[in-house]
Design a protein that fits this description.
Length: 291
């Protein structure tokens, strides 16, 4: 592609719910990605509340762990204790007035507790498919279409989730979006016989340590220097920080909760902030010229 684009080429970016940090920088980044084409591009995206909707008609969507808790195999003591952990740590995760360092410590503690809570529970992994089927249309509008286009263009998609990898995979398979160009980096269940034994990874992935975990996983960046990054947390914005040979990174943030208090911090971390947008319209419109 040789033509350079302007903001007029992207009508969705002019919507009232779209916030742009620096229009000149944004255009430079978009043009670099478009000029370099699909062979130099990859997508790095969060899953919970990024590929999935943040709410439907005001009702908050479940996270991948929340969906997992719909399994009929899980004992009541697990459900009760998992709920206690959520009620304790989720408010910290989304509180705009708590520092990132404090949040990171809290998320580490949450994931370690979640890891221990899973141990010695009898569980059939086939249950994930059943839960995915009853979860309904959880993906953002347009997600299936953009994944299909990215697959056709052979653009790698890294789904980098602090959630439950087994559930992420089951949801993507259920919606026919788990193509061979999709890689999931997440907390996958470890088994000891027919019982759970926590997570496979020694250091559980949480929202604020993704950049450290990325250094060990995002090898494909060596050959694809441009990144479309999507997330719903300021921690997600740093998913590819510290990775060498990155040329252009376009960061899109989805914001729904604590909008007024969180918007400034989101604007600092993301190139585009979408407030209460439950679609893939903006990333699709940006990428349509090369997909």
């Amino acid at each position: 592609m040789s033509k350079r684009v302007t903001l007029d080429d992207f009508p969705a970016l002019k919507s009232k719910h779209v916030y742009i940090k620096d229009k000149d920088t944004l255009l430079k980044t978009i043009n670099t990605i478009l000029q370099d084409g699909t062979s130099n591009l990859q997508v790095v995206t969060d899953f919970d509340l990024t590929l999935t909707k943040q709410h439907i008609n005001g009702t908050h969507m479940l996270s991948s762990f929340g969906m997992f808790k719909k399994s009929k195999q899980l004992p009541q003591h697990y459900l009760d204790e998992a709920k206690e952990l959520y009620n304790k740590y989720r408010p910290i995760e989304i509180d705009p007035y708590i520092s990132v360092n404090e949040k990171s410590d809290a998320m580490r503690d949450w994931m370690l507790a979640a890891n221990n809570l899973l141990k010695d529970i009898e569980f059939d992994p086939n249950e994930m498919e059943k839960v995915a089927l009853i979860s309904g249309n959880v993906l953002r509008d347009g997600t299936e279409e953009i994944f299909k286009k990215l697959h056709k263009a052979k653009v790698p998609i890294i789904v980098f989730s602090a959630g439950l990898g087994d559930m992420v995979e089951a949801i993507l398979k259920c919606h026919n979006t788990f193509y061979d160009n999709v890689q999931i980096i997440s907390n996958f269940l470890k088994y000891n016989g027919n019982k759970l034994d926590g997570f496979k990874n020694n250091v559980p992935i949480h929202t604020f340590n993704k950049n450290e975990c990325a250094k060990n996983h995002l090898k494909v960046l060596r050959n694809r220097h441009n990144v479309l990054l999507m997330g719903d947390s300021i921690g997600d914005a740093d998913m590819v920080e510290g990775i060498k040979d990155v040329k252009a990174v376009l960061k899109i943030g989805f914001l729904y909760e604590h909008v007024e208090a969180s918007l400034d911090s989101f604007m600092e971390k993301f190139d585009i902030v979408l407030v209460d947008d439950q679609t893939m319209q903006v990333p699709t419109e940006i990428l349509q010229s090369i997909l």
